[in-house]
Amino acid sequence: GDSVTQMEGPVTLSEEAFLTINCTYTATGYPSLFWYVQYPGEGLQLLLKATKADDKGSNKGFEATYRKETTSFHLEKGSVQVSDSAVYFCALTNHNNNDMRFGAGTRLTVKP
Amino acid sequence: DVKVTQSSRYLVKRTGEKVFLECVQDMDHENMFWYRQDPGLGLRLIYFSYDVKMKEKGDIPEGYSVSREKKERFSLILESASTNQTSMYLCASSFTGLVAKNIQYFGAGTRLSVL
To answer: pLDDT tens for residues A46-101?
Structure first.
């Protein structure tokens, strides 16, 4: 079945460092890809999405590009802030259904 | 803004108790979901519902049941709580539409401890 694999954390960075969180997927057809973020004590919020190959999703300085050739959707940010400390989840859905598959989550801590 | 509200942020229950977790959404979404979140395992789907009175099993339905009597409300029921059901429970909803399809909106979660 469809699945998502993301890099294990935790990831600890200093403020203004460059961030990459790797995400690869296995799916039939042409899935939509998502990054969700979970701040401490809260539910998940949609961070960005991409619905077809070569699409780039972006929000709040984060970006991810849908790469069909490498089945990847890596999350990047050029300069992280302390307020970016959270757990990040990569996810996919297939257009045939509403089922969403999540990665295990990557905890990011940004230190001043 | 879409709002998904879970009735409790924290619950402590005893083994064998019947537990109800309630979720309400205010955007007239057709689809509603219950997940549990455990460290290192991400989110695992327990049950989902595409319509009133309709339910489908997810990946880990054992020990759980659900109820959807009204479109805006989706309840998760632990018939006889056990310690291995201690977890964070997340409710989500989504709209079935061509453009907005598949984006799920989440509640803040209920952290359940079963003693």
So the answer is: 999 998 899 999 999 999 999 999 999 999 999 999 999 999 999 998 765 667 89
The helix or strand, by DSSP H or E, that contains position A45, with its residue range, turns out to be: strand A44-50
What is residue B79's DSSP assignment? S
Within 8 A of A102 by CB-CB distance, chain B residues are: 42-43
The pLDDT value given to residue B42: 87
Residue among A42, A43, A49 minimizing CB distance to B103? A49
Does the distance separating the beta carbons of A93 and B42 come in below 8 Å?
no
Q: How many CB pairs under 8 A join A and B?
A: 47
